[in-house]
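Anyone up for a design puzzle?
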């Protein structure tokens, strides 16, 4: 019957005892959202949870591709302006929160025995860190307001998005939205009520702002459209 037929033949059986065990393992509190969504039907709730997990897993690769492309492109442009260790250059005008994140990242690297050189620092800094650099900037250590429009965006980070004519705000908006989406997935939260097709379209669009080749690579290898087309009751659903 082929690969799909083999999956159907071995479809998972949701007996009451299996559902009880899964509810214990996953916790009744975590399952409550899905039980409500399923109108109290526990089997349907577990199938929704499985679908949510499968979709989250499918998004992992595209989000990873976007995050790495973003941080490397922004680092390249900031290094061009302020040097490879731009994050230590006072001229970059980094706000107090950003400096605190950098200090924590440096401490984590040193604790784990890694050098706090630019390649390691760039790799350890979170998606949220890079997205925050596209914000307006917060308070400087001295108490005055940072101006990321001048010291980050116009200083060269706009060149990290060569395929779109953007303001700082226009770049920050969709990336900050994708940051919250990524965090929900990273913390194993429900995403089934989101407009996931729109989330995916935004992700590939933003990737294309940075690199059209990266966008094409993400779309070619992505399983997101395939998984979104499956229903929670589809026996071929895998994660």
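Challenge accepted. My sequence:
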């Amino acid at each position: 019957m082929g690969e799909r037929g083999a999956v159907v033949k071995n479809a998972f059986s949701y007996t009451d005892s299996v559902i009880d065990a899964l509810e214990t393992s996953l916790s009744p509190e975590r399952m409550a959202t899905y039980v409500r969504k399923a109108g109290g039907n526990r089997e349907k709730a577990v199938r929704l949870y499985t679908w949510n997990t499968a979709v989250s897993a499918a998004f992992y690769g595209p989000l990873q591709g976007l995050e790495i492309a973003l941080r490397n492109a922004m680092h390249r442009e900031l290094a061009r302006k302020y040097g490879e260790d731009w994050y230590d250059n006072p001229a970059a005008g980094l706000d107090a929160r950003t400096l605190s994140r950098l200090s924590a990242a440096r401490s984590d690297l040193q604790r784990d025995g890694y050098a706090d050189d630019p390649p390691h620092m760039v790799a350890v800094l979170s998606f949220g860190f890079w997205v925050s650099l596209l914000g307006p900037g917060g308070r400087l250590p001295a108490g005055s307001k940072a101006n990321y429009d001048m010291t980050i965006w116009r200083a060269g980070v706009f060149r990290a998005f060569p395929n779109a004519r953007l303001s700082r705000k226009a770049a920050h908006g969709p990336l900050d939205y994708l940051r919250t989406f990524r965090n929900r997935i990273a913390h194993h939260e429900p995403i089934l009520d989101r407009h996931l097709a729109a989330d995916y379209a935004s992700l590939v669009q933003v990737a294309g702002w940075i690199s059209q080749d990266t966008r094409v690579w993400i779309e070619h290898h992505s399983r997101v459209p395939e998984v979104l087309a499956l229903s929670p009751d589809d026996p071929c659903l895998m994660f």
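A detail worth pointing out: The CA atoms of residues 35 and 41 lie 6 Å apart.
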